[in-house]
Design brief:
single chain; eight-stranded mixed β-sheet; about 40% helix; about 300 residues; alpha/beta
Length: about 300
């Protein structure tokens, strides 16, 4: 029999091992504590959003279809630019902003004004999405959501489509366009998929057109953000392509360096459109990122769709 020798750890080795264990425990505790804080913040945000949603707008005087439009879900704020001096050839353009998680969206107004001032016989209308507040503190009725692709819902689509329908009756346009950026592009894709014939042209800029895949992308980018793990009732534009009217013209625009809604989501939507035999074009902008709605190239592409050459 060979003698059995028990190898004992050197005291320094034991100290180092214990030190590592203590550090690992501290890191785990910090990680768990951080997740707990984020979860509490998420619940608090949801509560505040629920409490504040659908509050009556104190600054509403009347639904004049110039600044406010009344829908089944309440009042939606709009900004109207341009005039329809020639009712027989007026183009009506709508601009829908994105999810705007960190600010009050106002760039839809800038785009609408640019379009109206640079194009003849055009009325351009900026739509403030349900639940959102603009820089002037006008608030549209409805639920804003958590800005994680969770409010491209049937209720939001219905409210926006009511705005468009009422203003089409007001202006009797010869041509209608709907332009959406980011989350607004998803809403635009849903509008043409769920409301065939609502618009002649749809322009989708920086679109998260495959909502489930896009949310998975954002979850990978922000793994500690609990909002991306919540189930949503949003409709995905790629899922309603088959319902789009055959005469609708669709323009899909994406920046090649977009890290928020990567080009692949817009391309997938475009490929679904062409596979269905729809009138679609795809434009990729080199060296451009996500915030491209006010880009001069995008503006020119849109203007060319308002009064296309005969």
């Amino acid at each position: 029999m060979f003698p059995v020798h028990h190898i004992q750890k050197h005291p320094i080795t034991r100290i180092c091992t214990n030190t590592v264990k203590v550090k690992v425990k501290k890191i785990l505790k910090f990680f768990i504590f951080s997740l707990l804080l984020l979860s509490i913040a998420a619940l608090l945000f949801v509560y505040i959003e629920y409490r504040n949603s659908n509050k009556p707008n104190k600054d509403i005087h009347k639904a004049d279809n110039i600044n406010w439009v009344e829908t089944e879900q309440g009042y939606i704020h709009i900004r109207t630019f341009g005039q329809n001096k020639n009712r027989d050839s007026t183009s009506l353009v709508f601009v829908i902003h994105g999810d705007a998680p960190f600010n009050k969206p106002g760039y839809q107004n800038i785009m609408a004004e640019k379009i109206a001032s640079g194009t003849k016989n055009t009325v351009a209308v900026a739509i403030l999405r349900p639940g959102y507040t603009d820089p002037q503190d006008h608030t549209s009725n409805g639920i804003r959501g958590l800005t994680t692709g969770d409010n491209y819902t049937p209720e939001v689509i219905e409210a926006v489509s009511e705005v468009i329908e009422k203003l089409k009756k007001k202006y009797n346009p010869s041509r209608t366009l709907v332009i959406g950026h980011s989350g607004g592009a998803a809403i635009t894709g849903n509008l043409i998929g769920l409301k065939p014939g609502l618009t002649d042209v749809a322009v989708l800029v920086s679109c998260p057109c495959d909502v489930a895949a896009w949310r998975a992308h954002m979850r990978n980018k922000q793994p500690l953000n609990p909002f991306w793990y919540l189930n949503v009732k949003s409709i995905s534009p790629v899922e309603v392509v088959k319902n789009i009217g055959r005469d609708t013209e669709i323009m899909v625009i994406s920046g090649e360096n977009d890290k928020i809604t990567p080009l692949k989501f817009s391309r997938k939507y475009y490929e679904a459109l062409t596979t269905s035999g729809l009138k679609a074009s795809f434009i990729s902008l080199p060296d451009e990122g996500h915030e491209i709605l006010l880009n001069s190239a995008v503006t020119e592409h849109i203007k060319s769709s308002i009064h296309p050459p005969q």
